[in-house]
Amino acid sequence: MTPASRPAGLLLRLAFLLLLGGGLVVWGELRRPRDLRLDIDLEDALPGDVAELDVTVTRDGRALLRLDQKYGTSGAPVAVHSIVHARPGSAEVDAMLIDVQGSARRTRVFVDLTKDGPAVTRGEGREEGWSRAGSSRRRAEE
């Protein structure tokens, strides 16, 4: 090797290492878990009807969030807000609404968790069950 070609080879190696390091930083940032919002809208449920709410959010069989709230005879609020610490993407929301008489309605809904805004699922009255809203896709009840 001539002395003139050594700096060019060194610069090429340095440029390659910087490109590789930058790619790893970007890849790590894309895979990093974030605090993503999940809103459960109970506006269509009858006031005081929902006494307990049990929600499990999973992805690929792994639990991301478990929310078990008991509200008593006063009933649940119009909306329940929660934070899911996970990577953005599709997740399954398994929700059980329990009324004051003790009857339960269970449903599973797929939602897209994004950092841009909350994923919203809507609760309806006991007869109608849950419906899809926002960025959610309904799956048949079991």
Explain this structure to me?
- This protein has 142 residues and is of the alpha+beta class.
- The chain folds into two domains: 1-32; 34-138, Sandwich (Immunoglobulin-like), CATH 2.60.40.
- The chain has one helix spanning 5-31, and strands spanning 34-41, 50-59, 62-70, 79-86, 89-99, 104-113, 119-123, 130-131, 136-138.
- The strands form two sheets. It has a five-stranded antiparallel beta sheet, with no helix packed on it. A four-stranded mixed beta sheet has the order 4-1-7-8, with no helix packed on it.
Please give the largest β-sheet: 5 strands, antiparallel
Radius of gyration: 24 Å
What overall geometry do the principal axes of the alpha carbons give? rod-shaped
Q: Uncertain segments of ≥5 residues (pLDDT<50)? A: 125-142
Layout of strands and helices, then pairs:
Blueprint: H1 5-31, E1 34-41, E2 50-59, E3 62-70, E4 79-86, E5 89-99, E6 104-113, E7 119-123, E8 130-131, E9 136-138
How would you summarize what this structure contains?
By secondary structure, the protein is an alpha+beta fold. The protein has one helix and nine strands; from the N terminus they run αβββββββββ.
